[in-house]
TrEMBL record:
This is S-(hydroxymethyl)glutathione dehydrogenase. One of its GO terms (cellular component) is cytosol. One of its GO terms (molecular function) is S-nitrosoglutathione reductase (NADH) activity. It is an enzyme of class 1 (oxidoreductase).
């Protein structure tokens, strides 16, 4: 079938909206009509060429919502008409990871997913007869996409897809990192580095956990008002200080925070986020994605003296079992999605969503098909 799609033909170049060909779903696969998709910084990261797993040409996008159109042989968990969120972190329930009870990182389709291929090693997308790669197992920048059955979360059809698509990445990642990875408790002090979609979701999660103090840190003061509305008790701009930001936070908090979250993808900030943690127990969670060749460093003494460095992917959330419940929470008003959606655009203007992100003017732009 034909599908309108925003294709990343080359790294560092704008996406091109063209009509691609989408082949039918094969065994264990699902064809989805994407109705809406958010644009996450990770899409920009991969488009920039910094992602070691970036392959081109590809259909990017991983924060979508849509409706099942057709299922391949053997698919039983969804049927045409079901409303779904594609998952870049699959959940097969069968692999060593899924059975461990220790992680949401499912291994069932991850190897082929990282190569831009479907689990059988081929692609369902083509343009002028040439193959186009998939991305993160989701490729939501196409009106029609094919994903593995294990990469589909079925949700309440009454949920507004133009909002709950954000559970495909940003909101789930931030809120999940607070509850599943850090396990923030009432009264804890939290520092959040980077106040984009991910950082704001961390703030929303920390507020749910009744953290005592939530310090939002960003170089762009334009991000502070919304951060405060969503629960930040303090906002700090590193540019306003002439000493390292970790020293500023340690002084503000009588020795450091209980938890910090890096939501930028900057290895220097990752160090600062670790070093602003309290001696003896402070934990820092890396959420930001850093480019090829980048490495983190600190003095081992920081860990010897009790600070903990950890990371979080998709907020530690198991998508097929847990996303439907998070969608229900948003429908009950327990998770507010409206503040994240600063812009709405048609697919034809998707490059403006990237411009708005790079200019620091948006939190999330939702693309409407
Ligand atoms: P974003 O661009 O919307 O937000 C980033 C924020 O960081 C911006 O407000 C920017 O002003 C701020 N910033 C940049 N440099 C800074 C610095 N040196 N000090 C303080 N603030 C600074 O991005 P986003 O969509 O919120 O994504 C954030 C990061 O999280 C990205 O690296 C993205 O790839 C990553 N991510 C990871 C996961 C995961 O599962 N681990 C999921 C989603 C996104
Ligand atoms: N491809 C990159 C790593 C990218 C990465 O870390 N992705 C996050 C999700 S970002 C969503 O916006 C993630 O979940 N990682 C775990 C996984 O299995 O990919 C690289 O460095 O190769
Ligand atoms: Zn993302």
């Amino acid at each position: 079938m034909k599908s309108r799609a925003a294709v990343a033909f080359e790294p560092g170049k704008p996406l091109q909206v063209v009509e691609i060909d989408v082949a039918p779903p094969r065994k264990g696969e699902v064809l989805i009509k994407i109705t809406h998709t958010g644009v996450c910084h990770t899409d920009a990261f991969t488009l920039s060429g910094d992602d070691p797993e970036g392959v081109f040409p590809a259909v990017l996008g991983h924060e979508g919502g849509g409706i099942v159109v057709e299922v391949g042989e053997g698919v039983t968990s969804v049927k045409p008409g079901d409303h779904v969120i594609p998952l870049y972190t699959a959940e097969c329930g069968q692999c060593k990871f899924c059975k461990s009870g220790k992680t949401n990182l499912c291994s069932s389709v991850r190897a082929t997913q990282g190569k831009g291929l479907m689990p059988d090693g081929t692609t369902r997308f083509s343009y002028n007869g040439q193959p186009i790669y998939h991305y993160m197992g989701t490729s939501t920048f196409s009106e029609y996409t094919v994903v593995a059955e294990v990469s589909v979360a079925k949700i309440n059809p009454a949920a507004p897809l133009e909002k709950v698509c954000l559970f495909g990445c940003g909101v789930t990642t931030g809120i999940g990192a607070v509850h599943n990875t850090a396990k923030v408790k009432e009264g804890d002090t939290v520092a959040v580095f980077g106040l984009g979609g991910i950082g704001l979701a961390v703030i929303q999660g920390a507020a749910q956990a009744k953290a005592g103090r939530i310090i939002g840190i960003d170089l762009n003061p334009g991000k502070f008002e919304l951060a405060r509305k969503m629960g930040a008790t303090d906002t700090v701009n590193p540019k306003d200080h002439d000493k390292p930001i970790q020293e500023v936070i340690v002084e503000m908090t009588d020795g450091g925070v209980d938890f910090s979250f890096e939501c930028i993808g900057n290895v220097n900030v990752m160090r600062a986020a670790l070093e602003c943690c309290h001696k003896g127990w402070g934990e820092s969670v890396i959420i930001g994605v850093a480019g090829a060749g980048q490495e983190i460093c600190t003095r081992p003494f920081q860990l010897v003296t009790g600070r903990v460095w950890r990371g979080s992917a998709f907020g530690g959330v198991k998508g097929r079992s847990q996303l439907p419940g998070m969608v229900e929470q948003s429908m009950r008003g327990e998770i507010d999605l409206d503040p994240y959606i600063t812009h709405n655009l048609p697919l034809e203007r998707i490059n403006e969503a990237f411009d708005l992100m790079h200019e620091g003017k948006s939190i999330r732009t939702v693309i409407h098909y």
